Each structure stands twice: as structure tokens, then as C-alpha cells.
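Person: Show me a sequence?

Helper:
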Amino acid sequence: MNILIDNRQDKVDIDGLDKIVEDVIKTALEVEGIVDDVEVSVSFVDNEEIHKLNKYYRNVDRETDVLSFPLVEFEEIYSDIDEENNDEYDAIGPEPIGDIVISLEKAKQQAEEYGHSFIREVAYLTAHSMFHLMGYDHETDEDRKTMREKEDEVMRRLKIER
């Protein structure tokens, strides 16, 4: 597994965030039963940067807390792999599944608004984004419920409370 973390902001201290983000990513993959070698890129940005990205990629002219950029249709990643003979697949290294962009400035604001820790907010946003990378969305009530249950499972396994 390869988790790339890039801090592109200087407004919020990131001490300790690398470890929690890595733990959340690994746990989200475990919840889905994914044990293969994958790569996820995480960027920490400020509100100004995520606003620009949100406008450019989603045509939404405001800041948001997290953006997810899946690189593949997740269910297709493993469809062409012969589980008995995957030496060639193993040789190419981790499969990049996507990029996560988190506004730490927005996460800090939301943690204060919701009355829980900054670490908990970043962990939740990471879990939320990971499930988007793995093909989940929250367009319907049923999808939203499924996604929330998976996010809550990650948080429970890591003992991250509200």
C-alpha cells in the first residue's frame, strides 16, 4: 500500500494527521475486504485552494470540506485479474485508486461547529472520501445510509468517538 500525503497549506498544524489519515485509509479498505496493493494520494489544502478546485472540477463556486477524485471504476480494478496467477499484476506495483483533497481550514471550522475534535473531523472526511473512491455515493437515501454505516464502521474500529 502506498499512501502519499502532501501538505499544501500553512494555516492549520498537521501534527499527527499523517498517522490518522493512513489508519483511516487502511481501515476503510479492510471494511471493504480490499487487501491488494493500492495507492491513494491525499492533499491538505486551505479554503481558497479547495474553492478553486471545487469551481474548476464541479462548477460549484464555494469552498467545501473534501473532494474525491477516483481514478478508476473501482469494481473494475480486480475484474481482469486472475487470482491464481497474478504475478504480472504484482510486478507493476500499487494500483492508484484516486486522490483525496481535504481543506484543513474547513475541517477545523466544522469540528468546532459540530462540537468534536479536529482529528475526528479529518478522520471522518478521509473515510467519507475513501468510500467515494471505492464507488459509493450518497445520491439516494439508501445509498447515503449504506455509506454512513461504512464510515461509522471505520470510526468504530479506530475508536474515534464524536
